[in-house]
Design a protein that fits this description.
Elements: H1 2-29, H2 34-39, H3 45-55, H4 61-70, H5 73-80, E1 84-88, E2 95-100, E3 106-112, E4 115-121, E5 127-131, E6 137-138, E7 144-149, E8 154-159, E9 164-170, E10 175-182, E11 185-188, H6 208-243, H7 248-262, H8 265-279, H9 294-297, H10 303-329, H11 332-339, H12 344-356, H13 358-373, H14 376-382, H15 387-397, H16 400-428
Helix pairs in contact: 1-16, 6-7, 6-10, 6-13, 7-10, 8-10, 8-14, 10-12, 10-13, 13-16, 14-15, 15-16
Length: 435
C-alpha cells in the first residue's frame, strides 16, 4: 500500500506538471485582449503596448511559463545585483517588492527626469526619498543604465534621459493613469506557483493567492456542508431503492431522483428563492458578505445554496447507487448465500453493500471536484463568492494569473480525490490489493 501511494503521488506530480503546461498555453492563446479588457475599448495601440510590456506579456512563452511556475525574482536578482524581498503593505491587501541594500535597508526607485530617486522604507511604513544618481552605470557608448525595483513591483532597467510614458494602476482609486519616467525593460516580480505566489490579478491588482485562498475557503464550507448532507442521504436512499427493485418505494425514489437531477440548477435555485425567501420569508435569498466571517455570523445564508446543491446531487448519486445495488443483488455469490440459508440482512450488509458502493464512491469522488468549482451557476444565483464564480469572472476579463492558479487548484482536487477513492476501494473490496 505504501509503495502504491508513493507511486500515485509521483504520478500526481507528473500529471499536474503536464496539465500546468496545457493550462498555461491554452490560457495564453485563448481569444481575448487583456489590455482592452482592462484599459477599455478605446485604448490606443501605444497604451496597449505599454500595458502588455509592464505585464510581461511581450516576453517569450517559455519565459512567462517559468516565471509563473518558479518565479521571476531569482532571475531579477542577478540583474539588480541585490537580494529582493516581498512584504505586505500595512493596512492593505497589496504586496510590495523591495531590494535589500548593502546596509540591510529596503529600497526601490523611481525616475524623475534624469534623476534616479531612491525610496528607503522607514520603520513607520513611510518611504524616505533621496537622489541616488551615483548608481547609474555608463557603458562604452556613453549610455547610462540602471537595474532596480520600481514602485509597481517590477524589476526594471532605466535608461538615463529616456523617461518613457507608461500606464500604471492607481491602486487607491482602482483605475489606470498615465505616467512618465518609464523604463526600457520590465520584469514583473513574483515568487511563482510552486512558492504560493502565482502573481497579481490584472483586474484588481491584488495577489491572486490571497483572493483565491478566501474563495476556496468559502467553497469548501459550502461544498462540505452539501457533501455531508447529500452523499450519505443519497447512498442510503439508493440502497433502499436497489433492495426494493420494482416496488412502489423504488419507483418513487427513482422518479424523484430523476426529476431533481434533470432540473437545471438555475431553475431549482430560483424556485427555492421564490418559496422560502420571497413567500415564506424564512431565509435570505442571497448571500451578502460584509466580512470574512459572514458565513458564521449569519449561517442562514447557506440554507438555500446548500439545499439547491443537495437537490441537484441527490438524484444522480441515488440512481447510480440503486443501479449498482440491483446489479450486485443479482450476482451468483448472493444467490448462493440465499441458497445456503444465510439471513437476508447478513447477506445485504456483509456481502452486498460493500461491493455495491464501488461505483458510487467513484462518482462521489469525481463530484467533489464539481462541488468545488463547477457550482458557478449556484454561486451566481445567490451571489456566493466561491471558487467557481472567481474563475468565471477571471475568464470574462482573461485575468491570466487568476485563471491559471484557479485551474491548478481544480486539477489538484481532481487527482487528489481519485487517490482517496483508490484507497477507499481497498477497504470496500478485500480482493483489491495494490502492490
Amino acid at each position: 500500500m505504501v509503495k502504491f501511494i508513493l507511486r500515485r503521488l509521483l504520478t500526481m506530480l507528473l500529471t499536474m506538471f503536464i496539465v500546468s503546461i496545457v493550462v498555461f498555453v491554452v490560457t495564453e492563446i485563448a481569444p481575448g485582449n487583456v489590455a482592452r479588457n482592462i484599459l477599455g475599448a478605446f485604448a490606443t495601440p501605444e497604451q496597449e503596448a505599454s500595458f502588455r510590456e509592464r505585464l510581461g506579456l511581450n516576453q517569450s512563452l517559455h519565459i512567462r511559463y517559468l516565471s509563473w511556475l518558479a518565479g521571476s525574482d531569482w532571475r531579477a536578482e542577478r540583474l539588480v545585483g541585490m537580494p529582493l524581498t516581498r512584504i505586505k503593505k500595512p493596512g492593505t491587501e497589496f504586496y510590495e517588492w523591495w531590494a535589500v541594500d548593502e546596509d540591510g535597508t529596503l529600497v526601490r526607485w523611481k525616475l524623475e527626469g534624469e534623476d534616479l530617486i531612491a525610496l528607503h522604507l522607514q520603520p513607520d511604513g513611510t518611504a524616505e526619498q533621496s537622489i541616488d544618481n551615483e548608481r547609474w552605470q555608463t557603458d562604452e557608448e556613453g549610455v547610462s543604465r540602471f537595474w532596480g525595483v520600481d514602485v509597481d513591483n517590477h524589476a526594471v532597467m532605466w535608461e538615463k534621459g529616456s523617461g518613457e510614458t507608461y500606464w500604471m494602476r492607481a491602486k487607491a482609486a482602482g483605475w489606470w493613469v498615465e505616467k512618465t519616467g518609464g523604463a526600457r525593460t520590465y520584469i514583473p516580480l513574483q515568487k511563482g506557483m510552486l512558492r504560493g505566489d502565482p502573481g497579481e490579478s490584472v483586474r484588481t491588482g491584488r495577489a491572486v493567492a490571497d483572493t483565491l485562498l478566501r474563495r476556496v475557503q468559502n467553497s469548501v464550507i459550502l461544498a462540505g456542508i452539501a457533501f455531508v448532507i447529500v452523499m450519505p442521504l443519497a447512498l442510503v436512499l439508493g440502497l433502499i431503492a436497489g433492495l426494493n427493485e420494482g416496488k412502489a418505494i423504488d419507483r418513487i425514489l427513482s422518479v424523484g431522483g430523476l426529476m431533481t437531477t434533470a432540473t437545471p440548477e438555475f431553475a431549482t435555485g430560483i424556485f427555492l428563492i421564490l418559496i422560502f425567501a420571497s413567500w415564506l420569508k424564512l431565509v435570505p435569498g442571497a448571500t451578502v458578505f460584509v466580512s470574512e466571517r459572514a458565513i458564521f455570523e449569519n449561517p442562514k445564508m447557506l440554507v438555500l445554496p446548500v439545499l439547491t446543491l443537495t437537490l441537484i446531487e441527490l438524484g444522480y448519486v441515488l440512481r447510480i447507487t440503486r443501479a449498482s445495488m440491483v446489479e450486485v443483488m443479482r450476482e451468483p455469490y448472493i444467490r448462493t448465500g440465499f441458497l445456503k440459508g444465510l439471513p437476508y440482512w447478513r447477506i445485504v450488509f456483509k456481502h452486498a453493500i460493500r461491493n455495491a458502493l464501488m461505483a458510487p464512491i467513484t462518482v462521489i469522488m469525481l463530484h467533489v471536484n464539481w462541488l468545488m468549482g463547477g457550482i458557478v451557476v449556484v454561486e451566481a444565483i445567490f451571489g456566493f463568492p466561491g471558487l467557481g464564480k472567481y474563475l468565471y469572472d477571471a475568464a470574462l476579463y482573461k485575468d491570466l494569473f487568476a485563471i491559471e492558479a484557479g485551474a491548478m487548484v481544480m486539477v489538484f482536487l481532481a487527482v487528489g480525490t481519485q487517490l482517496v477513492a483508490d484507497i477507499i476501494y481497498t477497504f470496500l473490496n478485500p480482493r483489491i490489493r495494490y502492490a
